[in-house]
Amino acid sequence: LKMSWFWLYLPLHLLMATCLCHSIKAPTTSSQQSFKTNLFNFYHSLILADGKETTIHLLKDIPKRYYFALEEGRVLAPFSITVTPCDVPIEWSILVYKSPPGKATPGDHDTQEVSKSQKASSIASTIFSYKGNSVETYMGMSSHSALYLLEFLSTERDTHITVYLTTDTTSGHLYPELPADPRIDVIGIGHTTVTLTWKHSPSVLQHRENIQYCLLVNEKHNYKSLCAAETAIRSSGMKLPPTLALSLSPYLLEPQQVMILSDSELSIINKVSSGEVRQVCMGTKNTYTVPSLSPSTQYYFDVFIVNLLTNASAAYTGTFARTLEEPEPKVTELKDGKVIHVVLDGKKQKFYSLQYQARHKKIHFTFQLCQGQIQVHITRNGKTVASENLSGMRYFSVKGKLLDTYLVQLRSTEEFNSSVKVQASPHFHKPLFPVLPESLKIKSFSKLRTCRSVTIAWLGTQEESKYCVYRKKIEEDQIWRELQSADRCSGPESRHKAEKVLCKYFYDLNLQRAVTTETIKGLEAGTLYLFDVYLFGPSGIPVRYHSKVVKTRKKC
């Protein structure tokens, strides 16, 4: 607009202020021009940019106004305004200031004072108003030049919004286009998965390389825009990368975020107080199965179509689904005195259940950990009687009533598989496992090491038992693997005959003296050896002591 039109369309209170200045002192042409320029520069910062998305911050209960003017001389002037609330509901409206034809011309306006009749003729009318937190677009068409005022107000709290104005409706859109049916369909529900599908955006067909779909999964509610979702996550204490589409760099992640990149899909998982918030960008695929969900949990799903060049997005209509309840775990029955070997999946982290019905008041549970580490939870008639993390062999003695039902639940606490042997028997029943010493550690004596021999010691018990010693030559890079992968339930039958050193019997009624030593000779200088001791009880079932690695001296 030319300056004359801009002045003519100023709001009524500004026109009154202008007249008041004129009534006090008629300014010269130069001072008049300076006054106009200063006032114009003040309002220039509140003029809404055309063809650009503008972020506007709103303070509670304080309205904010932006102006824009349609170009003079166009027969028809189409325009559209899109407002996206990024948090709480807001109120916004569009007012238009129009002036009847034949009013002040550019030449006359620079020298004449604005009259009261001219002020009154510049009338404002509201052409659109909205209250809520949905993304709204107003499309208008004007046959003459006009000045428009947009007013925004937040009555709940400080917030921010984005506003996009365009008068060019022929060269494409900033926002990706939604299909005629923007709903997300749930086509499959499992215990830990939900499968979704949605209709393709027309923008994908036209600009496939610059468009992608991003999915947001959370346990709270649906979001009507991408900026609303980001604001909610940030308010829960998270720092979020600017958009889902640009969250492709690991250095943008916070400690509470986990990024997973597989099969050309990017997943970012945020751990927040209200649950898990998951973001997945899957390119232009319009069907996706969300994995690793919790059973019997309601999830909300939002799909956003994102333009990678402009960073603008549009939201499909969100949906929700509840995963199926987890099936009752299979329960294996424990029988008196019978040993059950259980292998636990470290990846699934699920409990394995064993059930035992007592035929005696006193019950003895024995756990021999073979590999890894496990968590044991024992209940009697639904009430917990023992719960512990195990890293070796452990006995639990419990006292109850006849026909009490015991449930033993086992779970691996490692990322890899763990295994354990379990036995339940009456307290007076002769146990299959041997009586164990206070510690299953093997001790070596550094001062007694030579180039050709090593001296080791281990604890015994008050019960006469058989002990067998084995040795194995290993390399430096094999130590961790040998110690971690050792099956502590396997007996000497799994060892090579050449590794056997000796077998011996011993016991001592005085536990303070129940210790034995052994010097292993015929070793190589400067060499690493892995030593194992096996304890055999009356039943013949072995218990393996913790392996010990010792290196002989290089020089003697």
TrEMBL record:
It is found in: Secreted. Keywords: Glycoprotein, Neurogenesis, Repeat, Secreted, Signal. It holds the Pfam family NDNF_N. One of its GO terms (biological process) is nervous system development. It comes from the Eukaryota. Its main location: secreted. The keyword Cytoplasm does not apply. This is Protein NDNF. One of its GO terms (molecular function) is heparin binding. Residues 176-313, 434-542 form the Fibronectin type-III domain. GO terms for cellular component: extracellular region. Secretory protein that plays a role in various cellular processes. Acts as a chemorepellent acting on gonadotropin-releasing hormone (GnRH) expressing neurons regulating their migration to the hypothalamus. Also promotes neuron migration, growth and survival as well as neurite outgrowth and is involved in the development of the olfactory system. May also act through the regulation of growth factors activity and downstream signaling. Also regulates extracellular matrix assembly and cell adhesiveness. InterPro entries: FN3_dom, FN3_sf, Ig-like_fold, NDNF, NDNF_C, NDNF_Fn(III)_1, NDNF_N. Residues 1-21 form the signal peptide.
